[in-house]
Amino acid sequence: MAEEKLPKRSENYSEWYNQVIQRAEMADYAPVRGCMVVRPYGWALWENIQQSLDRRFKATGHVNAAFPLFIPMSFFEKEKEHVEGFSPELAVVTIGGGEKLEEPLVVRPTSETVIGYMYSKWIKSYRDLPVLINQWGNVVRWEMRTRMFLRTMEFYWQEGHTAHATFEEAEEETRRMLNTYASFAYEDGAIPVLPGKKSNAEKFAGALHTYSIEAMMGDTKALQSGTSHNLGQNFAKAFDIRYLDQSNQLQYCWTTSWGLSTRFVGAVIMTHGDDQGLVLPPRLAPIQVVIVPIVRNDEEKSVVMPVIEQLRQQLSDVRIKVDDRMELTPGFKFNDWEMRGVPLRLEVGPRDVQNGVVVAARRDVPGKAGKITLNMEQIDKQVNDLLKEIQQAMLERATTFRDAHIYEPKDYADLQEIVKEGWAFAWWCGDSECETKVKEDTKATIRCIPDEQPGGSGTCVYCGKPATQKAYFSKAY
Description:
By secondary structure, this protein is of the alpha+beta class. The chain has three domains: 260 residues, BirA Bifunctional Protein, domain 2, CATH 3.30.930.10; 114 residues, Anticodon-binding domain (Rossmann fold); 69 residues, Translation Initiation Factor IF3 (2-Layer Sandwich). It contains 14 helices and 25 strands. It has a seven-stranded mixed β-sheet with strand order 3-7-8-14-11-10-9, with helices on both faces. Strands 16-15-17-18-19 form a five-stranded mixed β-sheet, sandwiched between helices. The chain has a four-stranded mixed β-sheet with strand order 20-21-25-22. The longest helix is centred in the last third of the chain and has 26 residues. The chain is globular and about 80 Å long. The two termini are 35 Å apart.
């Protein structure tokens, strides 16, 4: 029953990624090109991401609502930059109920337009502000080159949409949500993202400013893992979102939008996975602990299984799975759960029962080095401590990897070498022409301009003109 080994990440990273998703039963290809079916194990991971983010959103005063999947085409034409940015990706419905529609309907690629329309109806006075709404749903963008979780025609996400009285409030909200994403990525995903501002060339169509969290994957490419946009008054003016201020004067609102999608599942896979499969951070893992009975016959089973049931009850605060498939060997089960990235495996045999111990194997530390003997009497504390230790160790490992692959180029030739397998942190003059030339020469883009700058000034890595900011350049998914 032994399966063929996964391709090594160092030899074929792309094929490793595709195979690990299917073998770990995270997702499968759909019958529609560019779409995916998210399987229960993958959906459980997404649910844990959802729940963690939803708690954070509600703690900052946001509430959930639902808006339509179909949006009138005329809505997109109201905000010029927005429609230009999205027109190549739109899926448009022209026939409904067997008849040609009077107005084509766009299948939601994002909801700024329809939500802007609704906000114009709901917001009348400064007393109605701020409006802080989030929506969980799916969107469609007609992508030509797709990859499961990273870029599919249909994907799942949350999109927050808020309206404020002033630019300052909108900017504060935009940054608050960026920081919310960053703390979630660090604390729950064990992914050391770099937050920062997007260049004008990379910002969201119709936004004043776009901010993002950028993560380094195991092949050193960047993955934009969440975005937050200050939309200024662009959508407010397009959809007439106005309020009477305290002086009884009509003012346009300032709006924001921000989103994180199932792309983050891809970020978890590629940040932590190894040649044996997934390695999932305990805080997000669908199954945190798997218990494998080591028994050869019914007599040993009758001794071991009651103890395992007792362990399950002791560990009731942990997401746990007992693998009682007796037709499979322990070795097959070990490989199976390693492929699925379960953070901690507990092995229990008759001798362990006799000695009052359990053998634990950490997924993040392969082989014998990751094996520890635990005392059954203190199992709940020991397991919880181990899960915390694994979470922290995964973040530290990912941070060490990230920092080891970020370099400061001496000159443009050096940058060209660096971005072949790493990130360059380089001075940039702010001219989009330099950014375009770097992209043409290297396929690397500006991922973000971090708030934390070295200070002082330098010379642009491309043109040599004076520069006051540094940006991260890298190839990206």
